[in-house]
Amino acid sequence: MAPRNRASWLKEKQSPQNVVDDAPYTEPSTNELVIKTAATAINPADFMIQKLGILINEYPAILGCDVVGQVVQVHPSLADKFEIGDRVVGAAQPLRPKGDCYCYSAFQDYVVLQAPCIAKIPNDVPYKDAVVLPLAFNTAASCLFTAETLELPGPKMPMPESGINGHFIVWGASSSVGACAVQLATAAGYAVIGVGSTKNHGMIQDAGAVKAFDQANSSIVYDISEYLRGKEVVGAFLAVNSEDALKAMCKILDSVGGKKFISSVVPGSEAWATAGVKVTTNFMTGSESRLQCQDAVWPWLNEAMERGEMKYLPKPQVVGNGLGDIQKACDLLEKGVSAKKLVVLI
To answer: Dihedral of CA 313/120/138/8: which sign?
Structure first.
């Protein structure tokens, strides 16, 4: 008999409240496994989909992108990689229901995960730490390495020498996506320049940035331009929603030369571009190049975690225990947090 599954449901479009109720338990198909959820992390996408009623057409729906837990069922196609009892982290897929079932969404007791976006968690790494990674990791990787974006060479293991491939700017480096971008770019051999609040510079450099700059400094364009003068610059990544930040990055890239290309997480930010700098937005769910990127970076993540090379940043802040606290966590994130990831234990 299948175990009882419960989920945090969004019963109607733009409903202000997630409701805990029964949900179907779904068997894994080819390249899938099922986990018993141990924790989930909250992302801006979760409260934005709920509040704005975007991206999802069929209700009731289950949201949630980041999940960790213990494997309870494995399809034979993955039996050579995973087994029952493994502790794993995975990227949930709330925008890809299986028929009329939201079995790939994170906000439920049992989640179906799809390869390749699954990695084993070392025994000495708490679930609450590992769960900060999946969506931010996928987003950063697709912004850095896909053909439609910066198309940089991917991360290597063992880690290459810092700066061997040039310099790279990450604005919003203390955000969840930004911290993953710093780590990925560093692992690809770039010397990363991180931009964020002064109070978060320690975290930014812990992620691997060789230099951190204060986003609030009025001379930041000049300061970064002078630092990069004479160095090879391969582009930049905008990890926060800020028109002023993107325009500042355009000025920097125009000043120092090199590749005048910014990859952004903000839809529509192409319209903010100046100085002949090309801006591309990462919003390519399911594109062929993004799928190819995931095939490459998740095995790297698995090895980086195993070697102890991956940093679980920003640090988690546990704000709930149980599916009933999902809504509280979404509401807290909407109010704003800095250099932390909100986590709910399940």
So the answer is: negative
Q: Indicate whether 332 pLDDT > 60.
A: yes
Q: Are residues 325 and 230 in the same domain?
A: no
Helix locations, the chain, DSSP H? 44-52, 127-130, 134-145, 176-187, 201-207, 220-228, 243-256, 288-307, 326-335
Q: Which residues of 48-82 are buried (b: 16+ CB within 10 A; e: fewer)?
A: ebbeeeeebeeeebbbbbbbbbebbbbbeebeebb
Give the helix/strand (H/E) hosting 277.
none
Q: What are residue 193's DSSP bridge partners?
A: 169, 211
Instruction: Match 């005048």 to its residue by tokens.
Output: 260
Task: Look at residues 235, 256, 281 and tell me which one is the last residue of a structural domain.
Answer: 281
For residue 284, is pLDDT > 80?
no
Record the tokens describing residue 258, joined without a space: 């090199």
* CA distances (Å), origin 98, targets 68, 103, 117: 20, 7, 17
Tokens of 319: 């704000």
Contact 148, 160 (CB under 8 A): no
Q: Are residues 273 and 319 in the same domain?
A: no
Whether 211 has a pLDDT exceeding 80, the answer reads yes
Residues 142 and 233 in one domain: yes
Is there a single domain that holds both residue 220 and residue 256? Answer: yes
Domain that includes residue 271, residue range: 138-281
| Nearest residue to 318 (alpha-carbon basis) of 172, 140, 187, 127 | 127
Going by C-beta distance under 8 Å and a sequence separation of 6 or more, which residues neighbour residue 119? Answer: 88, 89, 90, 298, 301, 302, 305
**146 and 106: one domain?**
no
- Whether a cis peptide bond, with omega within 30° of 0, leads into 158 is yes
85 contacts 115 by C-beta, under 8 angstroms: no
Q: What is the pLDDT of residues 165-201, one digit of tens each?
A: 999 999 999 999 999 999 999 999 999 999 999 999 9
| Number of domains the chain is built from | 2
> Phi/psi zone of residue 14: left (φ > 0), alpha (ψ -120 to 50 degrees), beta?
left
